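Before going further, it is useful to explain how the protein records used in this thesis are read. An example of such a record is reproduced below.

***
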Amino acid sequence: MEGIKSKSSLCLDVCTRWNSTYLMLNAAQKFENAFDRYATIDPCFKFDLQSSDGLPDSLDWENVRRLVDFLGHFYDLTLRISGSRYVTSNIFFNEISSINCLLQEWQGSNDIELACMGDRMKVKFDKYWGDPNKMNKIIYITVVVDPRYKLEFMEFALSTVYGKEKGMELAKKIKLTVYGLFDEYKKTYQAEHGCGSNVAGNTSEKNESEGAKKKSRLNLRDQFLKDKIETGEANNKSDLDCYLNEGIKVVDAKEEFDILKWWQLNSYRFPILSIMVRDILAMPISTVASESAFSTRGRVLDPFRSSLTPKIVEALICAKDWLRKSHCCKSIEEQIADLERLEEGMRFD
């Protein structure tokens, strides 16, 4: 009768799952006019609600819209960082920084209730993310290896969240950490491939080894490289230097960016850095399912689980390891031999 085009279905919430409250209110607000008309044509509807808080008025619907907007940010954030079919580590710092800016905006709101709620949430936010020195540096490194962000975004975000001075100081520490981690991968790569730090070094070492067998001859290419090195025009940059010196990749907001695909296509340009990035991006930012993040109810432990002795816990862990190990296939001969040994032991007993 109201001509509402929405295909949403009305639902009830669960008191211990805040995402169900968001879904319920988000669907209900689309049917505001339908609820108003329902109250005029069905007296039982109005009568049933009078026993509680009565019919929702315009102020109630305004509060619904405010709460939907409030919870929607966290609902979308939780879904994004809880994904298991795509990389999440490179987006986490951006999400956390955005939440921090959102809470600061709410704190300065003219809406008293929203400001008070923002203050309480900011206290909890600072408890976990207030001191950046206590955060795992991998959260920052994954941002640096994202071609859309790199160090420029890191410096901007840290300065915005923690202030100019503290942000730039932290950005310098992160840069040193990135280079330190890259140096470790560089050593491993050189040890595995038996190569120097750059192509020119490989060429010179090869020429020296060949010169031990026969007298080396200075060709035009060697003369060219020698002149470039002497004039300082030839500088041996690492993969990380070349990557950071390039401009950031500009991606349209509506376009989906596949960071794994990008590094796969550019691995030939950054052979060492791509190996480091592969290991970093393989780590999920969270192993908690979104369902657990939405739940406000604590974990329930029955007496059997809460009263485990240290010996029982050790036995359970060992049994789990044995079960995992038992998945390897055994030949028929090995199984027969095990049965024979077991029968002999029982016979002696």
User: Anything to note?
Assistant: Residues 164-193 form the longest helix (30 residues).
